[in-house]
Amino acid sequence: MFKKKRGAVGIGTLIVFIAMVLVAAVAAAVLINTSGFLQQKASSTGRETTQEVASGIQVERIVGKTDAAKLNIQQLAIYVSPNAGSAGIDLRKTRIIISDGSQQAVLNYKVGDGQTTISNGTNSLTIGDGQTITITYDSINNQVSFSDGTTTVTVANGGTIQDTETAMLAVADNTIGKGYIVVQSTITLDGTQDVGGVTGTNDLIITDQYGNQMVIYDIGSGASANVKLSVIDSAYTPASLIAGGVFASDKLAWLGLSAATDYGIIVIQDADNSVQPLYPTINKGDMVALTFYVGNDAGTAIFGQGIQPRTKITGKVVPEFGAPGVIEFTTPTSYTDEIIELQ
Predict the structure, then answer these.
(1) Which of 128, 129, 125 lies closest to 145 in space, CA to CA?
(2) Three-state DSSP class for 135?
(3) What is the maximal distance between C-alpha atoms in the chain?
(4) N or C end of the chain: smaller count of CB under 10 Å?
(5) CA 107 from chain center: how many Å?
């Protein structure tokens, strides 16, 4: 009788022991999973914190340009580069915050979509970046046509290539031609010169109102060529076109600004070609100028007609992550030059 009771007690103890082992196993599994998750979370947070601390943008200098009468500063160019050790900075996500003490504006990069629509007032043709277009020169009537095989836009010498936005068309294949023109401008045509291609054959030279030239080889006597074109419809000027200075009137970084709160990009230095019109990213060694209007004669810019003498300007260039660049300067007591170093 006593032996049977001892056996029952032993089985109960075993059941309790097994239950404790199972509970301990479940608890251990939960702790292991939790610790693994926390470790990964801590690692991720550490990387993000390191990126936030190490990354950022630095304002190298700020230059302004006055109106013709030297009464107000109407254009600003802010030279920026990434901080030492910074990750790449996407300028599409970078904002400029600027204030004159009474007004504050937030500016964003004017980015396009990589295509433009040209027109002669009757027909319209949409051209995408990298698209091949047939360009035909009618030397008898002195007019040029652009065609994608379905739609043709013809513009005469002295006429205007109209556009829904200001954009740049450039020859992408240097065996066919060279150069670029800014559309939404008056053009002149010249088919009497031999500047490349087959020796002894005249080339078509299309010159826009800013003096830029697109040359199509060997069609100056009246012929056609299939030309691969690059399209830039963002407020962007590559490093290869900075001749004339950052305030030159033919720069698309200025011409492409459509809203008062737009800014453009002029590439100053970019060894790895990371600063592209649609996806501009600055990284180690890069420098760009951020361009925008602070005034105009009509008084419709962010600071009306511009920044007057003795005005304190503050602000920041704020990247998507990392430390912002600081804007802080006071304009001189008078403007004796059109181009003024401000910071």
Answers:
(1) 125
(2) strand
(3) 127
(4) N
(5) 13
Instruction: Name the token pair of 330.
Output: 């006071």
Residue entry with tokens 């691969």: 228
| Residues 160 and 187: beta-carbon distance below 8 Å | yes
Locus of tokens 């020169």: 137
Neighbour count for residue 61 (Cβ, 10 Å): 13
DSSP assignment of 142-194 equals: TEEEEE-SS-EEEEETT-EEEESS--EEEES-TTTEEEEEESSEEEEEEEEE-
Q: Which two tokens stand for residue 67?
A: 């109106």
Between CA 325 and CA 335, with CA 331 as vertex, the angle to 5 degrees is 135
> Per-residue confidence at 51, pLDDT binned at 50, 70, 90?
low
pTM of the model: 0.80
* Domain boundaries defined on the chain: 1-54, 57-112+234-341, 115-232
3-state secondary structure of 314: strand
Show the tokens assigned to 38: 């926390």
| Cα 115 from Cα 131, distance rounded (Å) | 9
